[in-house]
Design goal:
The protein has 140 residues and is α/β, with parallel strands linked by helices. It has helices at residues 14-25, 79-92, 94-103, 108-120, 132-138, and strands spanning 6-9, 30-34, 47-50, 68-71. The chain binds NADP nicotinamide-adenine-dinucleotide phosphate.
Length: 140
C-alpha cells in the first residue's frame, strides 16, 4: 500500500463499499468505521474500527494521522429511485430544464470518481464543495 491513508464511514453501504474497493485498488490503506455487528460486512482489505459515527469519542482515536476522512453515512440507498422520475419530468419542462440538469442525479460511478479525485488532490482547507456538473465530468 503506497497511497495516503483514508478513513471512511458508511463502508458497508451502497456508496461507501464501492468507495473503499476503489481506494484499495489504487493502493490507499483504508481504515473503516463500522457499527458493532457490521464490521464483518466491510470490503475485504479494509481495516475495521468499531464505533458509532454519531459519537466522536468512539472513533476519533482510530483516524490515522494525515488521513483524509470521508463520511458516507445512510440511510440513503433508495431515495434516488423516487427522485429519478421527478428529475426526468423537470428536464422536460423548459422553465426547469437548466436547473434540473445542474442539480440532478449522478451515478454511483460519478460519485466514486469524484471522491477518489478529491483524495488524490487534497486541499489545505478542510472542506470541498463539488457541484453536480463537476461530478459528471469526473465520472465520464
Ligand atoms: N445512494 C445514492 O444514490 C446517494 C446519492 C447521493 C447521496 N447519497 C447519500 O450518501 C449517503 C450514503 O448513501 P448509501 O446509499 O451508501 O447508504 P446505505 O447503503 O444505506 O449505507 C449507509 C451506511 O451508513 C452506515 N451507518 C449509518 N448510521 C451509522 C452510524 N451511526 N455509525 C456508523 N455507521 C453508520 C451503515 O452502516 P450499517 O452497516 O451498520 O447499517 C452503512 O454502512 C446517504 O447520506 C445518502 O443520502 C446517496
Amino acid at each position: 500500500m503506497s497511497g495516503e491513508p483514508v478513513f471512511v464511514t458508511g463502508g458497508t453501504g451502497y456508496l461507501g463499499s464501492a468507495l473503499i474497493e476503489t481506494l484499495l485498488s489504487r493502493g490507499h490503506p483504508v481504515h473503516a468505521l463500522a457499527r458493532r455487528g457490521s464490521e464483518t460486512r466491510l470490503p475485504q482489505g479494509a481495516r475495521a474500527s468499531v464505533g458509532d459515527a454519531l459519537d466522536a469519542e468512539t472513533f476519533a482515536a482510530a483516524i490515522p494521522a494525515r488521513a483524509s476522512t470521508w463520511y458516507v453515512l445512510g440511510p440513503g440507498h433508495r431515495w434516488p429511485v423516487v427522485l429519478a422520475p421527478l428529475y426526468a419530468l423537470l428536464r422536460m419542462i423548459p422553465a426547469t430544464r437548466e436547473s434540473a440538469q445542474r442539480l440532478g442525479l449522478v451515478t454511483r460511478a460519478q460519485v466514486i470518481a469524484t471522491l477518489v479525485h478529491a483524495v488524490a488532490t487534497p486541499r489545505p482547507s478542510g472542506i470541498r464543495i463539488v457541484e453536480v456538473p463537476e461530478m459528471r465530468r469526473a465520472g465520464s
